[in-house]
Amino acid sequence: MAHVRLVFTMTSLVFLINLSLSMAMALGPDYTDDLGFSVAYVGWVYGSFTLAATLSGFFVARFLDRIHRRRALLLSLLGLALCLCLTGLVKNFQWLIVCRILSGFLGGPLFALTQATITDYIPAERRGWAMARLMLGVSLSQIVGVPLSLQLSQWFGWRLPFLFFGVVGLCLLLPVSRLTMNLNTVPETKTNFRPNTTMKLTYLTSFCLRFGSFLLIPNLATYLVGNLESSRESLGLTFLLGGSLGLVATLIAGNMADRWGVLKVLLVGTLVEVILIYVLFISGWQDMPVLWVYVGFIVGLSISNLGFSTLLTHVPPPGQRAGFMAGNVALQYFAVTCGSFLGARMLSESEPGVLVGMAGVATISITMALVVPMLAMLIERRRSVTS
Asked: Which CATH number belongs to the domain containing residue 278 in this structure?
């Protein structure tokens, strides 16, 4: 029962971290008017968080395992919660950017610490179940957190959502403190983190997975409406159904990973993902059931992500888990940035809203997706040899 409480407490932290990023994008039209700057600069608000999270991950990875796990969790959570509150109090664009940089600098390591804590205290044979629940935080931040923040902003102004979720973060300090009170009482290591060859291969796999998916994800809405002529009114239902079934698939895949092994789950997810990327972006199928093909793609991607996330927990030894996870989080943010940028550079418009070049982007995405299980097999082979 203690393991269940620990997992769901870590899930609530992941919810808060992801919402602190997504909420800044969703509320862009509201705070730009109030603070007096162009909506064109909302990208800076988003990018400042991801850049700070990337840099802080690489920076703290070297020494994060030298800090007591409970102390690191509490300080990172306290800092993120205070930054959210301060974001709700800013008076101009400059201070908004400062608060977002600080939020990213603390949010990246906090996400790594949640993964390291799960890895520390959940048995290996239950990691699939635990990581599936941890990833619930990401899904719920989009399905519940963003709509709630938009509604609060509509009723009370854009500042309240930041203040509200900042207070939520402060309230989480108590359960985090209690649940981690008896966890490792001394730092695991006194040496700086240095990744070995297996860890570097895992980092490469992580980059390929994120880079390949974010070649496509930022352009999905535009492509569905402009190229596949899906109605704008049905877009909300499409994304809601995709997110909801992706969440269910993640939970099922978590249990399957514990029964079958992560490689089989990863292979199944990759196969579904690759087939439906081809159907959606390359095949040119005229009467495509867009809703169900998109949902299938999201389900396959969710299964792949779960399989790799579970594999991730098996790679680092106890004294290097926080540093390893911090480096991985930083690399994932970097991969998201690279994928989004390259996808945008490869695409153009033939007419308003119609994208040209998606087949080429999808081909690269398929290639990256196929590389992931190959690298995962190599990682598992190296792990079995070293163990």
From this structure: 1.20.1250.20
Phi/psi-derived region of residue 357, left when phi > 0, alpha when psi is between -120 and 50, beta in every other case? left
User: What does the buried/exposed string (b/e) look like for 335-361 if buried means 16 or more CB atoms within 10 Å of the residue's CB?
Assistant: bbbebbeebeebbeeeeeeebeebeeb
State pLDDT tens for residues 289-341.
888 898 999 999 999 999 999 999 889 888 888 889 989 988 988 898 888 88
Residue 122 backbone zone (phi > 0: left; psi -120 to 50: alpha; other: beta):
beta
Residues 368 and 283 in one domain: yes
Same domain as 147, residue 108: yes
d(CA 328, CA 354): 35
- Whether residues 155 and 69 fall in one domain: yes
Q: What is the pTM of this model?
A: 0.84
| Residue appearing with tokens 């899930």 | 11
Q: How far apart are CA 112 and CA 120, in angstroms?
A: 12
Count of residues in the chain: 387
> Residue 318: which of 131, 119, 127, 182 has the closest Cα?
119
Q: Is residue 192 part of a domain?
A: no
Rounded CA-CA distance 255/66 in Å is 33
Domain count across the chain = 2
**154-200 residue pLDDT tens:** 899 889 999 999 999 999 999 999 888 766 544 555 566 788 899 99
Comparing C-alpha atoms, which of 302, 235, 243 is closest to residue 272? 302
